[in-house]
Every structure is written in C-alpha cells, then in structure tokens.
TrEMBL record:
Annotated InterPro entries: Phytyl_CoA_dOase-like
Protein name per Swiss-Prot or TrEMBL: Phytanoyl-CoA dioxygenase family protein
Cofactor: Fe(2+)
Origin organism lineage: Bacteria, Pseudomonadati, Bacteroidota, Cytophagia, Cytophagales
Species annotation: Fibrella aquatilis
A single GO molecular function term of this UniProt record: 2-oxoglutarate-dependent dioxygenase activity
Length: 265
C-alpha cells in the first residue's frame, strides 16, 4: 500500500488544465492491488452501515442515484488510512495551488445495478465555505465503463452562476441541462480505467448516468478544502446542516479547524 503516500507528480499542463476546466482525470493514481484491497474493506463497511435503505422503486430521483454513506474514516481505521492518503491530498493541494488541504468529509457513493442518474448539480451549493478552493477526489474502486454511470463534467462551467442555487434532483437536472445547452462548455463523459481518479472543484457542474449493468458501481470520494478555509454564513438550510454535521464547533468568519477537519497535507 506504499502508493497511498508516494507523491504523484503533476505536470504544469495538468495543473493548468484543472485551473481552466475545474476538473481533471488522472491515470494510475492507485495500483490494482491497492484498489482490490480497499474495494473489499470499503464494501464491507458500506454493507455494515447501510441498514435501512428502501427498495429502489420506492426512492426519489436522488435516492435512486446511489447509496451514500459519509465519514467512513471515523468508523474504520483501514479506511482512514486510505482517506488520509498523502498522495491524494497532495494532488488536491497542487491542483488548487494552495499550501495545504483539510478534510471536509468523505463519502462512499455506491450506484446499484439498475440505479438511476445522478442529476446535474454543483457540490458547493451544500457547503458553507468562504472560497472556491475546494476539490473532490472521485475514486472508482473498479473499472467504470459508460454503462455503469461514470462521472460526467461540463468543462469550465464553474463560471456559470445560474443553477448554483439548486439542490440535486429533478429540477437541477432539467434546469442546469437547459442552461448548459445554450453555452459552449464541453460535455465530457468517458469511462474510467482501473486506477483512474478524477478531481473536480465545488462549483463545476457534473452528473452521472444510470447504472444499466448488473454490477454495483463502487466509488469512494474525499472532499478537500484549502487548509485556511473559513466558514461563511450559511446561504441555505443545507449549508446550515453541513456546518453542524461536518464542521461542528466552527465559527463563522474563522478558519474551519475542528477535529472533523484535520489537515491532510
């Protein structure tokens, strides 16, 4: 598992690509053995924590998108080792061009066989954070071909303000798609090879297709923020909830330095 902390060297061109498009896919971030090991560990933890999910047909669009479980690092020391990977955290810091990064939270996103779309949205709608220095590492635990529903990006769409106030759901899928249709941002939807990891910033619009295979699409994510990120006054109820859930005890206007938000690099 030495790859967890071995630096991954980014080229200046890769950093520039991220700065322009606010997403990037990087190959061979983790090797097959590391992913196989953590696939098993994370799957077991998800099964342990996922005890009360209704049947697919009983859920709304967002509910059908995936099983969503948070802060697995606090439940399992092996997963903590993975989530605290310095290799990942340094990539996040280098892409954002900041001196260091903190944990915002992690989440497992397991899209079941037959699971529906993940609607268009921007993550930072949910986050009471004072700048756009945020990035999510999206780590498939298996190769993810198009029929499995890999992440899709609207490259450079962080510049679009319209749609940022929409929570994820049917409205965000329809309204953001309509907005993006009349812009010239490139819509990028590609399979993920084993070991490929994407990074996207908090305001870039993204979605994922349905999983039309008979396999679970297993993804682990880690959300990073600039280590000097300050808490801002929540702009909606979801941000207020995120404040108390992921940054408990943080003070509006001050650096988010709580036990749930350790510096990872």
């Amino acid at each position: 598992m030495e790859t967890l902390d071995t630096p991954y060297e980014l080229s200046p061109e890769q950093v520039e690509f991220f700065q322009t498009n606010r997403y990037i896919k990087l190959r061979q971030v983790f090797d097959a053995d590391t992913l196989a090991y953590y696939n098993a560990v994370i799957t077991k933890q998800v099964d342990r924590m996922n005890t009360a999910t209704p049947a697919l047909e009983e859920r709304d669009t967002y509910g059908k998108a995936f099983l969503q479980l948070f802060n697995l690092w606090r439940e399992n020391d092996e997963i903590k080792t993975f989530v605290f990977s310095k290799r990942l955290a340094k990539i996040a810091a280098d892409l954002m061009q900041v001196a260091g990064v903190r944990m915002y939270h992690d989440q497992a996103l397991f899209k079941e066989a037959g699971g529906g779309i993940t609607p268009w949205h921007a993550d930072q709608y949910y986050w009471p954070l004072s700048s756009d220095k945020t990035v999510t590492a999206w780590i498939p635990l298996q190769a993810t071909p198009l029929p499995m529903g890999p992440l899709e990006f609207s490259a450079g769409s962080h510049r679009v303000v319209e749609g940022r106030d929409l929570k994820i759901g049917d409205d965000s899928e329809r309204q953001i798609a309509e907005k993006l249709r009349v812009t010239d941002f490139e819509h990028v939807v590609e399979p993920f090879d084993l070991g490929e990891v994407s990074f996207h910033s908090g305001w870039v619009f993204h979605r994922a297709g349905a999983n039309v295979t008979d396999q679970m699409r297993k993804v682990m994510t880690v959300i990073y923020m600039d280590k000097n990120m300050r808490l801002q006054q929540p702009a909606n109820k979801n941000q207020e909830n995120d404040w108390h859930t992921w940054c408990p005890g943080a003070v509006v206007g001050e650096v988010i330095d709580t036990e749930l938000n350790p510096v990872l690099y």
